[in-house]
Design brief:
459 residues, alpha/beta, 4-stranded parallel β-sheet, 10 strands, globular, binds iron/sulfur cluster
Length: 459
């Protein structure tokens, strides 16, 4: 069985949008032709292939207008919180106060890709002593220096402790440049010792109760700072409402991922699914709009699955992907090579799990923060990956290494060994820099070889 849908270029999208508008498409305020973002410098879009649904158009426009949204929020009197590193905890707290907007300065990670190295952010990081031995998140330093990609936040938070060396060093350098940071600590998640009370965290990891209590005390400190910034305290009632909204986002994503990864035909390409997942960690600076964007995407996917249409063919190799790609184009390359995404672990699996509502809100958030796959051992992370491989029925795993990332030196080997032992699946490790053009042919050959291996194993 083959698919009826195909991915389209940026140019085709602009023609298609024009037709859709004539047929009555109504867009949100940030809508418009995707091609206009190239004029803002987002030149990588010219090399990508996109899903052709209005839901995908809205998703892309939402993503690419975040900076405008942040500036508009500031102009309307809202305060901006730059939440660094924790991926999914502080933003839930900040959005519980309606005059705060949180975003991840870490998102500058993708600027060298989307703007094809034209911004000079990495050179600025170089000049500040943070060279290519660090991961692409070093682009964040350049973004703070130029102030050309996001407004400087009114409050900057950063989790420390069980944080990668890259981020610790870069955040300390940022602090040294005169940006005050509210540091909060998250300890390395460990097993309970005999006699210690253990807590099973959302997602299934275990940790001693004392670690949960410690993180809770740290988050209470962050909550006080957020309350001072907002001009009113962050109480449990507001936090519970914020958690309910975050859970709405997570529920939509859970249904979207389940359908996208398990339907016989791929109903939504890997690139759009990657962006959709990213919305979970900070809501792209507008939580309510995130819910609408995801709901529309889910409705489109449900329609396609019900109609039996999709991208690729039913025999596409079912791939589980580990780590986000620094170059978005690689998601397209996987599909061009005959693979489709059936499961992901993009470093923030904990931000996709529902936040418990039967616990006190701060206790629930402390547990979520400790459930982060990156604050425990690579063995824990591998166990979660194995569970999700089984859930989605993947046939092979790709671990995409992030250049310079300290955790990538060895984790691929550990994850690969455990996946082979537990699931008997082939594992491919590749490195994906911010721009892969020079390595495109090699990458495609390796992806095609994996796809062939998967198909051979079916016989
Ligand atoms: S090294 Fe990995 S976890 Fe650390 S900032 Fe870079 S991508 Fe994120």
């Amino acid at each position: 069985m083959t698919a009826a849908l195909r991915q389209i270029s940026l140019e085709e999208w602009d023609r298609r949008r024009h037709r859709l508008r004539e047929e009555g498409l109504v867009e949100p305020i940030y809508g418009g032709p995707l091609g206009r973002h190239v004029a803002d410098g987002d030149t990588r879009l010219l090399k990508l292939r996109f899903d052709d649904s209005p839901a995908a158009l809205r998703l892309w426009n939402f993503l690419l207008t975040e900076e405008d949204r942040l500036r508009a929020a500031r102009e309307s009197g809202k305060k901006l919180v730059g939440a660094m590193k924790d991926l999914g905890t502080v933003p839930v707290m900040a959005y519980s106060l309606d005059n705060l907007v949180a975003f991840y300065p870490d998102g500058a990670w993708w600027i060298p890709c989307v703007m094809e190295l034209n911004t000079g952010l990495l050179q600025i990081a170089d000049s500040l002593g943070i060279d290519e031995s660090f991961c692409p998140v070093r682009a964040m330093l350049g973004a703070f220096v130029t102030e050309a990609h996001f407004p400087l936040p009114d409050l900057l938070t950063c989790s420390v402790g069980a944080t990668c060396d890259d981020f610790s060093a870069i955040a300390q350098r940022l602090n040294g440049l005169g940006h005050p940071i509210l540091w909060w600590e998250i300890p390395h998640r460990r097993q309970s010792e005999p006699g210690e009370q253990a807590v099973t965290l959302p997602g299934g990891f275990e940790t001693p109760r004392s670690q949960v209590e410690f993180v809770k005390s740290e988050l209470l400190r962050v909550g006080v700072a957020l309350g001072e910034l907002a001009g009113r305290p962050l109480d449990d009632e507001s936090l519970a409402r914020g958690i309910a909204k975050a859970n709405r986002v997570r529920d939509l994503l859970d249904r979207l991922r389940h359908l996208a990864f398990t339907a016989p035909l791929c109903p939504m390409p890997a690139l759009e699914m990657l962006i959709a997942e990213m919305l979970a960690i900070h809501f792209c600076s507008d939580r309510d709009e995130t819910i609408l964007v995801l709901a529309e995407l889910l409705a489109e996917v449900e329609r396609r699955v019900a109609a039996g249409v999709g991208h690729l063919s039913t025999d596409a190799a079912r791939i589980f992907w580990v780590n986000p790609v620094a170059d978005l184009q690689v998601m397209n390359l996987l599909e061009e090579s005959g693979g489709r995404i059936c499961g992901t672990e993009y470093l923030f699996a904990h931000a996709l799990d529902p936040i418990p509502t039967t616990l006190g809100p701060m206790e629930a958030l402390a547990q979520m923060a400790l459930a982060d796959p990156m604050v425990g051992s690579s063995f824990d992370r591998a166990a979660r990956i194995v569970a999700d491989i089984r859930r989605f029925g993947a046939e092979a795993v790709i671990v995409s290494r992030i250049p310079g990332a300290s955790h990538c030196a060895l984790e691929g080997e550990i994850i690969g060994r455990i996946v082979r032992e537990e699931c008997g699946l082939p594992v491919l490790e590749i490195e994906v820099p911010s721009i892969t053009d020079a390595a495109k042919a090699t990458l495609c050959t390796r992806l095609e070889a994996l796809v062939e291996t998967v198909k051979d194993r079916r016989e």
